[in-house]
């Protein structure tokens, strides 16, 4: 299941790593048993992913475990024109982020090479203005969990508030109450909540299905 999930949505890998740490801390068995279980799960997960990784190497002649979009997503969320809410209009922003010569070069690159260029550009912007990166990240964290729809108006915004709002509030209350008698079980769920969205916090979020 971990391997299949990683192929479908690689962001879940962060939770797999965190859950192995959780197992080491909270396992009712010995530490050795927890490490053994974690290694076994990790090995099976890697074996599930391996065929796709081999395919990527044969196609791109580069080591790409799962996806080749991290650099693009990082630049979409971290550039002088980013707003921390949506990357609508990123194609137009490309004309300002890259010169005509650079855009022409990008068109000749494959997706892995292009993503690497995007990543370098994004890291350059982040290093040049780390304060803005922090501001955009905090904004993304807020809107990731927000009751309101920050991206664009839809006919379902009120329904979103009514359905998601109480669920979120009750979930927080449940985790607080669980810390007394059921913290071991509740902490695993909390680990999922904390670890899964970390990549979206620093890149970009525009679709609520991520949450």
Topology:
Elements: H1 2-8, H2 13-26, H3 31-60, H4 70-77, H5 90-97, H6 100-108, H7 111-128, H8 130-145, H9 157-181, H10 183-195, H11 198-202
Written description of the protein model:
73% of the residues lie in helices and 0% in strands. It contains eleven helices and no strands. It is mainly α and 211 residues long. It has helices spanning 2-8, 13-26, 31-60, 70-77, 90-97, 100-108, 111-128, 130-145, 157-181, 183-195, 198-202. The model has no long low-confidence stretch (mean pLDDT 88).
Percent of sequence in beta strands: under 5%
Got a strand count?
0
Instruction: State the order of secondary-structure elements, H for helix, E for strand.
Output: HHHHHHHHHHH
Shape estimate: globular
Total of helices:
11
Largest sheet: none
- Derived from helix and strand composition plus strand pairing, the structural class reads mainly alpha
Question: If you average the pLDDT, what whole number results?
Answer: 88
Unreliable runs: none
Alpha-carbon distance between the termini? 20 Å
Q: Into which percent range does the helicity of residues fall?
A: over 70%
Rg from Cα: 20 Å
Defining key terms:
single chain, mainly alpha, 11 helices, globular
Offer a concise description of the structure:
The protein has 211 residues and is mainly alpha-helical.
């Amino acid at each position: 299941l971990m391997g299949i999930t990683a192929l479908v949505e690689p962001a879940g890998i962060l939770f797999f790593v965190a859950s192995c740490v959780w197992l080491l801390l909270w396992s009712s068995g010995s530490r050795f048993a927890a490490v053994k279980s974690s290694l076994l799960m990790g090995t099976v997960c890697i074996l599930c992913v391996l065929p796709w990784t081999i395919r990527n190497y044969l196609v791109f002649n580069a080591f790409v475990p799962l996806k080749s979009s991290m650099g693009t997503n990082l630049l979409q969320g971290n550039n002088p024109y980013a707003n921390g809410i949506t990357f609508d209009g990123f194609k137009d922003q490309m004309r300002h982020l890259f010169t005509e010569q650079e855009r022409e070069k990008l068109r000749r690159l494959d997706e892995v090479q292009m993503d690497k260029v995007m990543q370098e550009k994004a890291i350059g912007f982040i290093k040049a203005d780390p304060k803005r990166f922090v501001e955009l990240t905090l904004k993304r964290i807020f809107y990731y969990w927000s009751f309101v729809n920050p991206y664009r108006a839809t006919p379902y915004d009120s329904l979103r508030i009514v359905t998601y709002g109480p669920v979120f509030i009750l979930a927080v209350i449940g985790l607080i109450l669980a810390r007394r008698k059921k913290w071991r079980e509740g902490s695993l769920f909390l680990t999922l909540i904390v670890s899964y969205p970390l990549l979206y916090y620093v890149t970009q979020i525009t679709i609520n299905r991520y949450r």
